[in-house]
Amino acid sequence: MAKARITFDVTDPQAPVFVISVAAELTGMHPQTLRTYDRIGLVSPGRAVGGGRRYSLHDLDRLRTVADLTSVGIGIEGVRRILELEVEVDRLRAMVATLEVELNRARQALMHLSPANLPAVRAASDLTQYHPAPPGHSAR
User: Which residues contact 59 (CB under 8 A, 6 or more apart)?
Assistant: First the structure.
């Protein structure tokens, strides 16, 4: 019986391709450190059929960031929070980019409207000032 051939996209930075020993070598970390970081959730490598960890280029970048932050004295919980905030900043940047595209489309659409197609708005309207009732008085 032929073995199943595993394929992956080498251009995909999320593809889990590196075994733990290679990931350790590429990041300059001990394999046990990588296991610890996986256990505490700083990195989440993929898994092979047999359960072995498989690290992606993205995982390696994240591990290098962890190493850089810990080397300047930031504790693991601080590193975890920094990584969470970086993910949130990336998410918000993507949202801003999407909203900017939508805003530009709306501006373009408004530029193509003629004043005759716009709804009429009254130039003036009556305003009534609100005066709350003094405490203890009921409104009638």
Answer: 16, 18, 23, 43, 44, 45
Q: Which of 77, 74, 37 is nearest to 53 (CA)?
A: 37
- Phi and psi, residue 53, nearest 5°: -70, 145
From CA 58, how far away is CA 18, in angstroms rounded? 11
pLDDT in tens, 22-79: 999 999 999 999 999 999 999 999 988 888 999 999 999 999 999 999 999 999 999 9
Question: Using CA atoms, how far apart are residues 135 and 138, in angstroms rounded to an integer?
Answer: 8
For the chain, what is the largest distance between any 2 Cα atoms, rounded to a whole number of angstroms? 90
